[in-house]
Design a protein that fits this description.
By secondary structure, the protein is of the alpha/beta class. The protein contains eleven helices and 17 strands. InterPro entries: Metallo-B-lactamas, RibonucZ/Hydroxyglut_hydro, UPF0173_UPF0282_UlaG_hydrolase.
């Protein structure tokens, strides 16, 4: 060791701290008596007992206006590397009477906690968690979301877990403890694989399973589902992960004739269109044009960008390219680029407001 070195010996970590405040506190407590230290520990024990005897309120939120629906993106990314970049989180959907989380990936809990702290979400109001398929960018934060809903609940009834066949089978196996504390329903579309219900009602939302074509695991390409939401503010189709295939938009129209908002998992442009890039994966940029022509929604919100497509530059360029083609075709649909925390409000089957409340 050089005479000029200021490095501390390995193992002497007791006084290595992250900031001056922590260092000052450590010095104060180092000078405290054992009785004083035990008093601090006992105080924390008492606080823990009180917390479990009377659980604290986990957030607060202003009510959504009657006749409206509010959608918040719990992260804008998806896929493997978007998830590993920390951006895969799903959706928060609220109405005047109902609150659900859809596809809570590993970023969802952080977004929900931040929204709760800022007065935009209350775990006590969470009615249901919906999961489209058993991929980690869609389900990792299911249990924390259910824990929050169960712990904070002050009203009769139990939270609902609704998912596709694979999700419900695996959840029963890996977390029977939580399954015993919630109501559960398996959702499937008649064109898909698996046994379940095509529809479930949650408060003033009607949730329909829509078909997909997406590899959930070997031999399971038709088990994932999307969600068509019949809401007080308008119809919403959350595509989830799917290819665009013949019959998909017809199936959606049969369920939800009037679609106000499409939330499209259309991350890749795939400009040169080699077929292997599109095999049983996700929607591509050009697919948004086909979907828009078929459904004529008021808006399309693009979400679930993989890391290579996550820059603001790409997202705006993609939305601009699509908007030019829709305008040229005289289609009224507006394209919105997704971003974590983006919040939309639909009312009277139209977009009435959008903002990023945590910006």
């Amino acid at each position: 060791m050089s005479p000029r070195s200021t490095a501390r010996p390995v193992g002497n970590t007791r006084r290595v701290h992250h900031d001056d405040t922590t260092a000052d506190l450590a010095r104060q407590l180092d000078a405290a008596s054992d009785e004083e230290l035990l008093a601090i520990l006992a105080e924390a024990d008492a606080a823990d007992e009180a917390m479990h005897a009377s659980p604290p309120r986990l957030g607060s939120a202003l009510p959504v206006a009657p006749g409206a629906v509010e959608i918040t993106l719990l992260g804008g990314l998806g896929c493997r590397y978007g998830m590993l970049a920390g951006g895969a989180g799903g959706l928060l959907v609220r109405t005047a009477h109902t609150c659900v989380v859809i596809d809570p990936g590993p970023a969802a809990l952080d977004w929900l906690v931040r929204l709760a702290q800022a007065g935009h979400f209350d775990f006590a109001a969470l009615d249901a968690v919906l999961v489209s398929h058993f991929h980690p960018d869609h389900y990792v934060d299911v249990i924390p979301c259910l824990e929050g809903a169960i712990s904070a609940r002050t009203r009769p009834g139990r939270p609902l877990l609704a998912g596709n066949t694979t999700v419900m089978q695996r959840f029963a196996a890996f977390s029977p403890y939580h399954l015993r504390q919630v109501d559960a329903v398996t959702l499937t579309h008649p064109a898909g694989d698996g046994d379940g219900e095509p529809t479930t009602k949650i408060g003033d939302l009607v949730v329909h399973a829509t078909p997909t074509l997406h590899v959930e695991e070997a031999g399971r390409n038709r088990t994932p589902i999307g969600f068509a939401l019949d809401t007080p503010g308008g119809g919403i189709w959350h595509t989830s992960d799917t290819n665009l295939y013949d019959g998909l938009t017809d199936a959606v129209t049969a369920i939800l004739p009037d679609v106000t908002l499409v939330i499209a998992h259309a991350d890749a442009t795939n400009v040169n269109a080699p077929p292997e890039r599109a095999a049983l994966c996700h929607l591509q940029t050009r697919d948004v044009l086909t979907i828009t022509e078929a459904l004529r929604p008021g808006h399309v919100l693009i979400q679930h960008y993989d890391a290579a497509y996550s820059s603001q530059r790409y997202r705006i360029a993609q939305a601009t390219w699509l908007q030019r083609r829709l305008d040229a075709a005289a289609l009224p649909t507006r394209i919105l680029a997704g971003a974590g925390g983006l919040q939309l409000t639909l009312a009277e089957a139209a977009l009435s407001h959008h903002t990023i409340p945590l910006a």
